[in-house]
Amino acid sequence: MEDLATKIIPLVQMLIPGFVCTMIYYWLADMKKPGQFERTIQALIGTGLITLLVSGIRVLMEYIGAHWFVLGEWTPTVESAWGVGLAVLLGLGLAYASNHDYLYSIARKRGLTSRASYPEWIYAFRKRESKHVVLNFLDGRRLYGYPSVWPTDPKDGHFLITQPCWMNEEGEWVETPGIESYLVNNSDIYWVEFLE
Known about the structure:
The chain is an alpha+beta fold. It is 50% helix and 19% strand.
């Protein structure tokens, strides 16, 4: 049993950067989380990339130490710290790029894909963040307002509509004095209109 523990602990320590990277990414990115198997594969790929980066940093630091000045001794602790630090930076960077559609916009411009880095539902709201909307309810009612928050999934979640205004049967907008916002269940919405 001790032999198994001495083999598993270094393996887990080696894999931690990839899991930290994917954990941070899925915490912050507006992405649907894939299954456990796919996330594990992504973590393993992340570990491989981070290991390559740490190896490159070690070579660079040894070169700097041999030619200019010594920052300190390269130890397993330093190597682990670089790995976790790079995992955090990589996870934050990928989440930022995903939430702002940077990588996919480059791929779209090159004709490599027609997709965005997030689902169409989120893309529609992200590209129209300053626009007001009209929510059309299943029962025919219409609510105008600004979507401060919108659901990340088209089937569930809630809209937080500020500056709300209802449309009556005559097609006139009716102000709602004293109401600052409405929290609307997405399952009650038939479609969303984006206004100019």
